[in-house]
Amino acid sequence: MRSEDVPVLIVGGSLVGLSSAIFLAWHGIRTLNVERHRGTAVHPRAGHFQLRTLELFRSVGLEDVIRRTSEEQYDPNGGIAAVESLAGPEIATYIANLNTGVEDVSPSVRFFMTQQALEPILRTRAEQLGAELQYGTELVSFEQDADGVSAVVRDVGSGAERTVRARYMIAADGNRSPIRERLGIAMRGRGLISHSVTIYFRADAAPLLRGRNLGVIYVFNPVLRGFFRLEKSGRSGFLAVNTVGDTSRPEATRVADDITEERCIALVRAALGVPDIPVHVDDVATWRAVADNAERYLDGRVFLAGDAAHTMPPNGGFGGNTGVQDAHNLAWKIAMVINGAAGPGLLETYDAERQPLGKLTVEQAYTRYVRRTAPYLGTDDIQPVVDEWRMEIGHKYHSSAVLSEEDDDGALHEDPRESRGRPGTRAPHLFLERGGQRLFVLLSGADGGAWRDAAHAAAGQLGGLALDSYMIGSAGDLTEPGRAGGFGDRYGISPSGAVLVRPDGFIAWRTKKMAPKETAPAAVTTLVGVLSSILSRG
Question: What is this structure's pTM?
Answer without folding.
Answer: 0.94
